[in-house]
Q: What sequence folds into this?
């Protein structure tokens, strides 16, 4: 036990901040998402003010972006599905629907449009490096595009009670 004294505001703030930790057995581990600073827009909102879907969505973006930082120009990020022989999804977009749904958009190995709708309690994502499509000039880096969007506030939808114009 520590003799350090904290104000109630400090205790409240510490309980609302995200915690992360990672340990590797290798001598030169790769940089991981847990060690990266949070983007300003993501850090501005307290964890307790976010739905499980929003919090999962934001952290997935950080993991994808970090994974892409370690890829060469011949590979792109894809997502492997847990359970069954359903293949992989080349990630083209990610979304969430409060309070508890995360959605992945993309294409499978045959270029068929694919969408995975996942409840946050069942979330299990494996990121994979796939060779980029040869017809594209450079690899798509969806993680960087998604991370740039974290600084924007999500728009209200009709489901949240806003009027459509």
A:
């Amino acid at each position: 036990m520590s003799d350090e004294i904290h104000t109630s505001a400090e205790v409240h703030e510490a309980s609302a901040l995200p915690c992360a930790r990672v340990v590797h057995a290798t001598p030169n581990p790769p940089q991981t998402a847990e060690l990266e600073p949070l983007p300003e827009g993501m850090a501005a909102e307290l964890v307790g003010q976010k739905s499980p879907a929003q919090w999962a969505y934001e952290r997935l973006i950080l993991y994808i972006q970090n994974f892409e930082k370690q890829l060469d120009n011949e590979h792109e990020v894809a997502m492997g599905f847990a359970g069954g022989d359903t293949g992989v999804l080349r990630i083209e977009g990610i979304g969430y629907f409060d309070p508890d749904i995360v959605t992945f958009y993309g294409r499978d190995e045959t270029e068929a449009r694919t969408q995975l709708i996942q409840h946050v309690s069942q979330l299990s994502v494996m990121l994979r490096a796939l060779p980029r499509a040869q017809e594209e000039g450079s690899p798509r880096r969806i993680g960087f595009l998604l991370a740039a969007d974290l600084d924007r506030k999500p728009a209200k939808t009709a489901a949240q009670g806003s009027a459509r114009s």
Summary: Residues 52-69 form the longest helix (18 residues). The longest strand covers residues 88-97. Confidence is low (pLDDT under 50) at residues 161-165.
